[in-house]
């Protein structure tokens, strides 16, 4: 399989015992430059994520408005659906992670996840105006995301130098966020050009998703490690929680996930503040993704230098500010713009950095399974938080629900800080 070395200076060739020439080495000091430290494979994975995120964010950016305004779901019903199609990834994350470790086929498993998300776009077209059908298609898309995420992140950790993991995830998430930035703009253009025909968005999204799968096949190579080819047992993967450091990270991931509400709620709150026309709803996601795009790589480098757990905590402080702004500044565009910028900063500080925090603690034999385990903890927590926040909004109104979310972050942060620090 060819590499995309054209995007970086010629790397040093290293011949391994199996007589195969690889274009990356994870020995500290063996490579120079940013791309040299993180590995060309990381950039290739980032380009795949860029294209795939254009596809997925086209749908995600319009989905809350489509469900609430187009299909007339209540806020509580939307919260339940949002939680379910986030939580449905829990089992698939574990399955994808363990399968990738068991057969040392991280690229194959990740590719299956990308392909499943592409096929799910056909389900969106077939669903028509059925909320149940749309929910099933989105669940399939999220299952694909669950299958691919841990193998992809494991390939990143095995392609980059250990001291540059924060930067590696930062570069990957930056490229990923370029796609997340472009996706809503493409969706907006399609809506404007087709008299708000959502089916047209689903067709374009399908074509872009197929392109992402092709890029993975052509340019990403399966990351190899130096661990003997003995296949790990399921009990070995599940036994990771016997390590107190990993167990504390899992506790922190669950606790912080419980106080993180879904993106759709944030955008629906701002839309209601401003009375924003549904046509312009995708622009809210663009605001978040611009901040994410600008901050992902710098925050990854800061995490490597000053401590990854500190950056994760700082991201949740930004999330606290978002909740307070949403609950207390109705009708103010400057407050809305600041909230979107801080929301992007939260994702830039947490998304890849938490995985970079966990990676050095996980044995290579079961690293994919370990990352999947933490991501599953987050997914289950997100399921509960979306359902609870939707019910709170329905029962008490958006302002009080926002203050409840802010209070949850305040209560959770001290304990999460202790768990993160003791797990480093």
TrEMBL record:
How does this protein lie in the membrane?
A: Multi-pass membrane protein
The molecule here is called MFS transporter
- Any single Pfam family the record assigns to this protein: MFS_1
The Major facilitator superfamily (MFS) profile domain covers which part of the protein?
41-424
UniProt keyword list: Membrane, Transmembrane, Transmembrane helix
Q: Which residue ranges run through the membrane?
A: 33-51, 58-80, 114-139, 175-194, 200-220, 249-270, 276-295, 307-326, 332-350, 371-395, 401-420
Q: What is the first-listed, main subcellular location in coarse terms?
A: membrane
Highest taxon listed in the record's lineage: Bacteria
What is the originating organism of this protein?
Fodinicola feengrottensis
As for subcellular location, the record says:
Cell membrane
Show the Gene3D superfamilies listed in the entry.
Answer: MFS general substrate transporter like domains
């Amino acid at each position: 399989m060819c590499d995309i070395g054209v995007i970086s200076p010629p790397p040093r060739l290293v011949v391994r015992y199996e007589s195969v020439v690889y274009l990356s080495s994870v020995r500290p000091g063996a490579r120079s430059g940013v791309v040299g430290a993180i590995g060309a494979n990381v950039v290739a994975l980032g380009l795949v994520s860029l294209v795939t995120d254009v596809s997925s964010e086209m749908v995600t950016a319009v989905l809350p408005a489509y469900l609430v305004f187009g299909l007339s779901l209540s806020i509580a019903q939307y919260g339940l659906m949002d939680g379910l199609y986030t939580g449905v990834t829990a089992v698939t994350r574990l399955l994808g992670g363990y399968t990738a470790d068991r057969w040392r086929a991280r690229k194959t498993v990740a590719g299956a996840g990308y392909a499943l998300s592409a096929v799910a776009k056909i389900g969106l077209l077939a669903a028509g105006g059925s909320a149940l059908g749309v929910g099933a298609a989105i669940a399939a898309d999220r299952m694909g995301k669950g299958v691919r995420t841990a193998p992809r992140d494991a390939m990143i950790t095995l392609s980059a130098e250990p001291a540059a993991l924060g930067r590696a995830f930062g570069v990957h998430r930056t490229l990923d966020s370029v796609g997340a930035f472009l996706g809503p703009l493409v969706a907006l253009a399609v809506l404007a050009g087709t008299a708000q025909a959502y089916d047209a968005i689903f067709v374009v999204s399908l074509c872009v998703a197929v392109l992402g799968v092709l890029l993975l096949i052509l340019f990403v190579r399966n990351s190899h490690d130096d661990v003997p080819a003995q296949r790990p047992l399921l009990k070995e993967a599940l036994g990771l929680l016997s390590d107190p450091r990993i167990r504390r990270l899992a506790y922190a991931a669950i606790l912080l996930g419980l106080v993180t509400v879904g993106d759709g709620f944030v955008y629906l709150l701002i839309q209601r503040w401003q009375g924003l026309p549904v046509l312009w709803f995708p622009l809210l996601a663009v605001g978040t993704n611009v901040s994410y795009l600008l901050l992902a790589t710098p925050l990854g480098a800061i995490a490597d230098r000053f401590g990854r757990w500190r950056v994760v905590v700082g991201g949740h402080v930004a999330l606290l500010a978002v909740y307070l702004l949403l609950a207390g500044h109705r009708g103010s565009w400057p407050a809305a713009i600041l909230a979107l910028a801080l929301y992007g900063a939260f994702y830039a500080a947490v998304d890849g950095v938490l995985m970079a925090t966990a990676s050095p603690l996980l044995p290579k034999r079961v690293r994919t399974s370990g990352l999947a385990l933490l991501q599953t903890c987050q997914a289950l927590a997100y399921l509960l938080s979306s359902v609870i926040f939707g019910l709170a909004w329905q029962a008490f109104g958006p302002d009080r629900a926002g203050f409840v979310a802010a209070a949850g972050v305040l209560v959770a942060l001290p304990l999460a800080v202790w768990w993160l620090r003791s797990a480093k």
